[in-house]
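INFO  loader      accepted 1 record
INFO  loader      residues=301
INFO  predictor   begin
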Amino acid sequence: MIYDILIIGAGPAGLTAAIYARRAGKSVLVLEQDSFGGQITFSPKLENYPGFESISGNDLAQRMLEQTLALGAEVDMDSVTGIEDGPVKTVVGENARYQARAVIIAAGARHRRLNLPREEELVGNGLSFCAVCDGAFYQGAHVAVIGGGNTALQEILLLSETCAKVTVVQNLAFLTGEQTMAERVLARPNVEILYSTLCVGYEGEAHLTGLRLQNSVTGEEQTLPVDGAFLAIGTEPENLAFSALAPLNEAGYIKADESCRTATPGIFAAGDCRTKAYRQVATAVADGAAAALNACRYLDR
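INFO  predictor   done
INFO  writer      dumping tokens
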């Protein structure tokens, strides 16, 4: 089957694009390699998405997916390894090859790593990315959160509700997240913040037992014993599979402006995977709408 529009990624941008494309009468296939909803499923509470005073990322993702399916979009699980250009595009997946007249890349981004020795071995063994997923394992324990942006502040607030102590390791001399969230973190009595501090290594064999830290101002080093640690230093794109047709900038993001058009006609980029100033759920949704509308215009012409 040749679809009108194939969407790579089922986060807020991809699902919004599917909703807009289906409402325009286009046949749509959405491919997702991991989990529907993307990064928002790791957010226990969203308080800045219009229409909801507070909603969990999982609940918002589920509502988006249900709306997408109700409109008749097809969804499938596959990991895309490349795109072949032509009047009809061929999207190459690990499980199959798919054809569409237009493609929207909404592949999102992955959790950023520190790239320290044994890091991948310790993921799931004391080193985590998601407090809503793994926080229950550390009730009454001492955990560390590495990072000081919005993602980190959300993790800190959630963990501080059940953990005996949360130590924040922030490489800068201040928190970089929203002021209101930072104020709530600073008010928590069981939260300690180590400013201007770098995590330079991990302690423990089969399971994480501590962090090796270094003060970036004084150079002083210390070992912080912890029961677990959460990496919350943002995300990074995984766009190499698309780089032949959708050129990337030096940071690996697809070069596309607010129109979401890439250098290749008929291929669009939306959400966290493209060059943009702000990466929020609201901006991802806006991208999804713009990409779908411009993809429909491309097809209608």
